[in-house]
Amino acid sequence: ARRYMSELADYAEDLVTTAFAERTGIDHRVDVGSPVSALRLVRLPDGLAESHPSADALRNRVVSEFNVEGAFTSFCGVGYFRLSTHVYNTAADFEDFVERMVPTLCDWARER
Q: Is 1 helix (H, G, I), strand (E, B) or coil?
């Protein structure tokens, strides 16, 4: 189970960061030193989740408008999204996120 979750987290991180980078032209990978096997951080486009209150508001908006549960946070004025995998997650879950959420999040960032 741990190997599956770690491999899925690696896949999801590559998929999501690449999708953001293709739209923004910047690297969205986050070097945390030693990643936890099932968790990864992805830098959000500039303008999103730049404070804890705005990260909470973004989480609420994503749930309300897309019924997608996600963990958004902020550190030093930069917004992040936490990728979390478990045995019930599949690659299709993250492919769906890239298809539906990455374009929307990039649009919302540009609106700010």
A: coil
